[in-house]
Write a structure and sequence with these properties.
eight-stranded parallel β-barrel, two-stranded antiparallel sheet
Length: 400
């Protein structure tokens, strides 16, 4: 997630090399390139039965129709979008990902989360007020998750010690704030594949195996109510159709497709996968044509890959299976300020019409229609507020 735009925080540097590497995907890639007490907490909030029922009915009916709205809330940092209190987030947002929990070092596995310092966010609420806002959102049927990683939060669980520290530190954050689960937003160099790791169904790279084990441990600890979302970049997912890891002859970027073993191993535990269809280079679709950001076509082609499945690294004997449509949402920038690849609301609706109804598909023909598509993810709630809630209002108008 690009939280740097118009940032007033000097330590949050601009990503350069990784973004440049993304733009090279059209050629041969080189090496340069909740068992939580949520129910009890909701009961503690004691909303009126009528209000609680109406809110939950609305949320459940929209979810059954396939429309979940996910957004990231800039909780730990400031940038040009302005600070927004959790309590002030409109009810339209069904899943709120708190950005970000970050490691003390790339390889420690020790994740920390702190609210934005008052010197940078004068309007920041107190920790107690924030916790009360979490309870209130949960009482209204919303999910509040801790998002781990982001553009600056490189997380590499290379050892079992780092894995165990990840589990304990993430658990501590979930327990302290009473959260519903976890969003995995590993970017940059967090995930890459060892040279001999060629089968996404049986990964051997320690950082990937340990991440899978850590998430499964968290799921087992908190139970079926644990909400799990992921926000990988296209480089780590759809690019895997063309390139996977270093490749048969080596020389490719080891990060290509590196999220695929994580998604596959956790598909039964996954609530929503919302790949970032932005800040991306051209990506080859299932039509073997390159698709670029900027219109409905990119979202249609990228989402079709997840809903249809695809051979990994061009190997027809090693196919990444399709995900259920209710587990797939489309990740988009909420405004032109939020990230490269923003599209107008008309293009958003074209993509949704094509994927859910089979209409207005343009030049790309998807391999099916999926009325129960999971919904949309926006980076971010703050940027959408900055843009007068255009993204949210369009979503509400579409899904009702």
């Amino acid at each position: 997630m690009d939280r740097i735009r118009a940032s007033v925080r000097s330590r949050r540097r601009i990503l350069t090399a990784a973004a440049a590497g993304l733009l090279a995907v059209s050629g041969f890639l080189t090496s340069s390139l909740t068992g939580t007490a949520a129910a009890a907490r909701a009961a503690d909030a004691e909303p009126s039965p009528t209000t609680q029922g109406e809110t939950r009915d609305r949320t459940e009916s929209r979810s059954l129709a396939g429309g979940t709205l996910v957004g990231y809330l800039h909780s730990s940092f400031a940038n040009g979008s302005g600070y927004a209190k959790l309590a002030d987030v409109p009810d339209s947002w069904d899943i709120i990902d708190l950005a970000f929990g970050e490691p003390t070092s790339a390889t420690s596995g020790d994740i920390r989360f702190e609210l934005c310092p008052q010197t940078e966010c004068p309007e920041v609420e107190s920790k107690d007020e924030f916790k009360e806002a979490v309870k209130a959102k949960q009482a209204d049927g919303k999910k509040v998750l801790i998002s781990i990683g982001g553009q600056n939060g490189q997380v590499q669980l290379n050892t079992t010690e780092a894995r165990d520290t990840f589990v304990s530190s993430v658990s501590a954050i979930i327990d302290e704030y009473g959260l519903d689960g976890l969003d995995i937003d590993f970017e940059g160099h967090s995930l890459s594949l060892d040279t001999d790791d060629t089968d996404f169904k049986n990964p051997t790279t320690p950082a990937i195996v340990n991440l899978i084990d850590a998430v499964k441990t968290l799921k087992a600890k908190y139970g079926e109510s644990f909400t799990l979302t992921m926000a990988p970049e296209t480089f780590f997912v759809q690019l895997g159709y063309q390139y996977y890891g270093t490749g048969e002859w080596g020389g490719q970027d080891a990060r290509a497709g590196a999220y695929l073993p994580v998604i596959h191993a956790l598909r039964d535990d996954l609530t929503l996968l919302h790949v970032q269809d932005y800040n991306s280079g051209p990506i080859m679709g299932l039509d073997d044509q390159f698709h670029t950001m900027g219109g409905a076509d990119f979202h249609i082609a990228m989402t079709d890959m997840l809903l249809t499945g695809f051979p990994v690294g061009g190997n027809t004997d090693n196919v990444f299976p399709a995900l259920p449509p209710e587990k797939v949402a489309i990740g988009m920038p909420a405004s032109a300020n939020a990230g490269n690849g923003h599209v107008a609301t008309g293009e958003v609706n074209k993509a949704l019409d094509c994927l859910t109804k089979g209409t207005d598909c343009g030049s790309y023909e998807p391999h099916g229609t999926w009325p129960e598509l999971g919904g949309l993810m926006a980076w971010s709630i703050n940027w959408d507020r900055h843009g007068d809630w255009e993204f949210m209002n369009n979503f509400d108008g579409y899904f009702g």
